[in-house]
Amino acid sequence: MIAILDYGSGNLRSAQRAFATSGFDVVLTSDTKTAQEADGLVVPGVGAFAACMRGLDAIDGANIIRTRLSAERPTIGICIGMQILFSLGDENSQGQAHSGVGIWPGVVSKLSAEILPHMGWNTVETPKNTQLFAGVEDSSFYFVHSYAAKDGPGQMQTWSTYGERFVSAVEDGYMSATQFHPEKSGDAGLALIKNWSRSL
Predict the structure, then answer these.
(1) Catalytic residue among 79, 91, 98, 171
(2) pLDDT > 90? residue 64
(3) Distance (Å, rounded) from C-alpha 132 to C-alpha 156?
(4) Which one from 98, 118, 145, 181 is the annotated catalytic residue?
(5) 183 is an active site residue
(6) Planar angle of CA 39, 180, 54, nearest 5 degrees
(7) Is residue 79 annotated as a catalytic residue, yes or no?
(8) Could you tell me the residue ranges of all domains in the chain?
């Protein structure tokens, strides 16, 4: 079973439909036990970093994510759900960065680009031996964001460029994340979801 973490942020129904194409049962939940024990957990997210963290804190979501990592249970973050896995986010911070879950070190900061948000299709630079992008290495994916991580964490990073180079995905053992929305990325996004589901 795949659980989509419902903490008041994210296009949950769209994500639920997309992850259901993996063949797994998919549930929306804010229940700690269900989220911790699911075969796979999806952490979605739209909006601002601090608002997502407030929603996550309200359901003890950071502890859910850390517990799953300790138990070697796969988790994937999407869009802001990826960003909050980092230590800090400086969106609307007025000089005081907001704390994230802290799975990976680093700060999520504003993209240096003439037009923001970065909205639409973009290509990715995948690493060798990627499992997440197997079969879709040369595909484009759908992005909607103004902030991103610029330093690559974890075992394997995928990169994109919009004004500057940024991390568009991470593969790090039982923790994965994408800055883009796989559920909005057509056949390539669904293939990526199926690739991730094979780790469950």
Answers:
(1) 79
(2) yes
(3) 10
(4) 181
(5) yes
(6) 70
(7) yes
(8) 2-197
